[in-house]
Amino acid sequence: MMDKLTPKETSKGAEEIVLTQIKQDFITPANAIFDYVDMVEKVLNDLELVSEDEISQIKASCSKLIDQYDEAFILNTGVNASTNKKSPEEYSELRHNLRTPLNAIIGYSEILMEDYEDDLEQGAIDDFQQIINLARDTEKAIEKFVDYIRGESIDLNDDNATSQLENAESLFKSLGDIEYSITLSDEIKQSDILIVDDNITNCEVLQRRLSMEGLKCRTAYDGNTAITEVFRKTPDLILLDVILPDINGLELLKMFRKEHSSESLPVIMVSAFNDVDSISKCIQLGAQDYLPKPLNGTILLAKVVASLERKFWREREKELVDKLHIQATTDQLTGIFNRRVVFEALDEAMENANEAQDREFTTIMFDIDFFKHVNDTYGHAGGDAVLISFAQLLRDEITSPNIVGRIGGEEFLAILYLNEDQALEFCKKLIKKINSNLVNFDGTDIKISTSGGVAFSSETSTSADLTNKADERLYEAKKSGRNRFQFINSELVGD
């Protein structure tokens, strides 16, 4: 086994992966230095400790370090790498230039830590130490980078380095087996995409790229037109440029979010601004994703399809949840509320009535008269037709905030926010409706009637006792001749 593996001994793809890891090893601690500097700066400012010059020097040195590294990385890797081998002196100079800003970062951090050691809590001291540690990590990453471009970076005696290379080689080989084409479903192809960009050429390019994949697009060249287009027909996705002649893209995004959620109207921002602050601002305002200019066609398509698929999956999920909710809360045959919902509503109504005396309500328990005879005469299909018709009549007469549901067989329960006098008038009207209602089944009109027991929340303090009273009065109504509603001390007889 070789002790060293140079870039020449790796595949092109694996080399790219290794270089990406090498750069990541540098940029992660380098960027973290900024974060920790911001934290210690805030602490020092809060304590009114003089540190402006030192903090500025640390930040400037960190910025210089990153800029120099980026430049060196571009010049010494990939297609930009010179075919002429550098001299040892040149590599030494590169290492020196990259390490020089670290001296300032470490030096000024140590000075501040020593000067204000007695004034700072341990957390701030630890943050200063972390800056120094991150600078040391950055130094190691620089050494690794310079060694690699010299052809000495991969040490096979280093288990970690060996593992990284092996993983890189394996990953690159596996990539060759992956199909990169994106298959669009018919549903995705039917989606409506609105492209908002003041540059006509940009719009045309975007539209052509997406249209080539079978996607349907329309365009708007300014913010006001975009608003009109969204109002005319809400698109499935918006590709929104940040810079527009009348309303900037961020303001437009805020307008859209007042009327549409990110789930119902996904927006992908498009801009030449490719910095972290711009991207985070867009995401914060409700953008689902961000595309930097110039656009990469593959990435564009991937993000557009991903956004559309998320939208459609959420819609399917909502449809399923709504369907399950309906199944859980409604009677399958009649379509009105089921037993569970009605009794939960009754418990809530009684609780509210006990807390506030002005929340009086009425409970009516219904039972279709001679329903067994209906089933025996017309079969269960005829019985079902009667139940459906009766439930529809109740639903038409008993509207929100009142509630009615089927609690079993031919029994129904209603909760009405009416006092005793109002309940009596309601029952008079209802019993006339029921008596005049004919259920047509198989060409035959079936006349039905109902018996009911009426109880009032003022009679008791529990929902169980209330339903018992309504049930007892229902039994009395049926016993005394049916087609009537039984109240506390009186009854209402139908025609």
Characterization of this structure:
- There is one protein chain.
- The chain is α/β, with parallel strands linked by helices.
- It has 3 domains: 4-175, Butyryl-CoA Dehydrogenase, subunit A, domain 3 (Up-down Bundle), CATH 1.20.140; 186-320, 3-Layer(aba) Sandwich (Rossmann fold); 339-493, Alpha-Beta Plaits (2-Layer Sandwich), CATH 3.30.70.270.
- 59% of the residues lie in helices and 14% in strands.
- The protein has 15 helices and 15 strands.
- The protein has helices at residues 12-46, 52-76, 88-115, 122-149, 159-175, 186-189, 200-211, 223-232, 249-259, 276-284, 297-329, 339-355, 371-397, 420-436, 463-479, and strands at 4-5, 154-155, 192-196, 216-220, 237-241, 267-271, 289-292, 362-368, 403-408, 411-416, 438-441, 444-447, 450-456, 484-486, 491-493.
- The strands form 4 sheets. It has a 6-stranded mixed beta sheet with strand order 9-10-8-13-14-15, with helices on both faces.
- Helix 1 packs antiparallel against helix 4.
- The longest helix has 35 residues, at 12-46.
Order of helices and strands: EHHHHEHHEHEHEHEHEHHEHEEHEEEHEE
Overall body shape? elongated
Instruction: Output the number of helix runs.
Output: 15
Report the CATH architecture of the largest domain.
Answer: Up-down Bundle
Strand order of the largest sheet: 9-10-8-13-14-15
Proportion in helices:
55-70%
CATH class descriptor of the largest domain: Mainly Alpha
What labels would you give this structure?
495 residues, alpha/beta, 15 helices, disordered N terminus, 3 domains, Butyryl-CoA Dehydrogenase, subunit A, domain 3, Alpha-Beta Plaits, five-stranded parallel beta sheet, single chain, Rossmann fold, 59% helix, six-stranded mixed beta sheet
